[in-house]
Every structure is written in C-alpha cells, then in structure tokens.
Automatic annotation (TrEMBL):
It is found in: Cell inner membrane. This is Phosphatidylglycerol--prolipoprotein diacylglyceryl transferase. It comes from the Bacteria. One of its GO terms (biological process) is lipoprotein biosynthetic process. It comes from Ignavibacterium album (strain DSM 19864 / JCM 16511 / NBRC 101810 / Mat9-16). Belongs to the Lgt family. Catalyzes the transfer of the diacylglyceryl group from phosphatidylglycerol to the sulfhydryl group of the N-terminal cysteine of a prolipoprotein, the first step in the formation of mature lipoproteins. Pfam families: LGT. One of its GO terms (molecular function) is phosphatidylglycerol-prolipoprotein diacylglyceryl transferase activity. Its main location: membrane. GO terms for cellular component: plasma membrane. The gene is lgt. Pathway: Protein modification; lipoprotein biosynthesis (diacylglyceryl transfer). Keywords: Cell inner membrane, Cell membrane, Lipoprotein, Membrane, Transferase, Transmembrane, Transmembrane helix. Signal peptide: none annotated.
Amino acid sequence: MIISSIWWQVSPEIMKLGPFSLRWYGLLFALAFVFGYMILSKVYKREKKPLEDLEQLSIYVILGTVIGARLGHCLFYDPRYYLTNPVEILKVWQGGLASHGAAIGILTALYLFSRKKKDQNMIWILDRLVIVVALGGALIRLGNLFNSEIIGKATDVPWAFVFVRVDEIPRHPTQLYESLFYFLSFIILYLIYSKKSSSLKPGYLFGLFLILIFGFRFFVEFLKENQSAFESALPINMGQILSIPFVLLGLYYIFRKKQNVNSAKK
C-alpha cells in the first residue's frame, strides 16, 4: 500500500537567510493577492472604474483576510486557549488561519469599503471579487500542501500521499482536492462573468461562489482529519458546521427574485 503512494517530504521553506526564511505558504499567499489584483485591474478597466478604488479595495481585502482568518482560527477551533492567552492571537507567523474566518473578515471589510463608494455597492463588488478569491483559495491550499497540514484521513487509493513530516500513513491529499476544485471554480466564475456579466442578476456570481466553494468544503471534510480534538464529539466537524450558513446564503442569492437591479448596479 505504501509503495504505491506518493511520499511527500518537500520542505516548507524555499530558502533561509539567517533568522529569516521564505516559505512556500507565504509566497503562494502573496501571489494570491498579486494575481487577484491583476485580474481585478482588467475588470475595473472593462467597467470603467478608477484603479484608485481598486487600490483602496485591495488594502481592505488584505486586512479583512488576514485579521478574519486569524480570529476565525483562534475563536472557532481553540477559543479557550486563545481567550486565556490573547497575546498568542497576534502571532500569525506561527500559523493558524481559517478560511471561514477569512470569508467573514472579507465581508466585513467590503461592507466598510462599499459605504464609501456609491457606485460600487457591496453586491457589485462581491460578484467580481469572488472570482479572484476562488483562485486565491487554490493557491493557499497548495501552501497547506507544502506545510503538510490540513491532512486527509488514511486511505489505500493509489494517489495517496505519505506526509513524511507527519507520519508514514498514506492519506487523502485533501489540500490538492480543494486546490484543484477551487481552481476549477475560478475558471467557471471567470467565464460566466466574461460572457454574461451584463445579463446576470446582482448577487448571482457571489451565490454561485458560496455554493461551489463551501458546498465542496462540506463534503471534502469527510476525508479530512479533524483539526481540533473537540470535533470528535460532534456529528459533523467545525468546517462543515461553518460551511452550512454560507451555502444557504449562496442559495438565497441564486434563487431570489430579480429585483432592485438598478440600485444594485449603481
């Protein structure tokens, strides 16, 4: 069984300079924002929006992502420890980011940003931003693969990964599953926007994104090891619990009646 598996022992560090090191996760995280900015630049030019607005939006999204992802990890997966040791919350470099927390952080940041931009309300921004968020998710999950974290359950499938730095058990490479699906979601969202953006009701792409990403997240969690011990006592794990409201929100935006179109396009 182990012979047919892929032995994964790639170092999470690309290079080390004294006390500082460049890690694959950090590089891929940064590339998510770089590629996202490049794609959204084309979107803003296409829709004749000033790039200065995109620069401001980028700052809001970066802060919302990092703060939300860190607080999400601390409060969703180990609240007792972090509330007892609040200084530990600030140690982002030690790892611990939650995608559901990032989603909440981004939504909060966009709400604050959209209040300043009358021609770019929150739904208008979300319908475009989710395209690059899907791509960012694909890159970040590759970073998780390099870190040998968020590992899958033991399996005997021929493409199983043996994460040497964790143990010598063949496991589902759930990081790859998610990365590939998020990249596919990026392509789907981008093609729909490119071909049908003028005819789509406001919120459609946002809703489709939520259904695709968090719907897949719900099911792929069945193949993952729990991230915290308390999840073993739950009927479904924390990732699945947090995914349900996002999927329901996505269904709402997909199937709601087409209304307030003019106000949504301001």
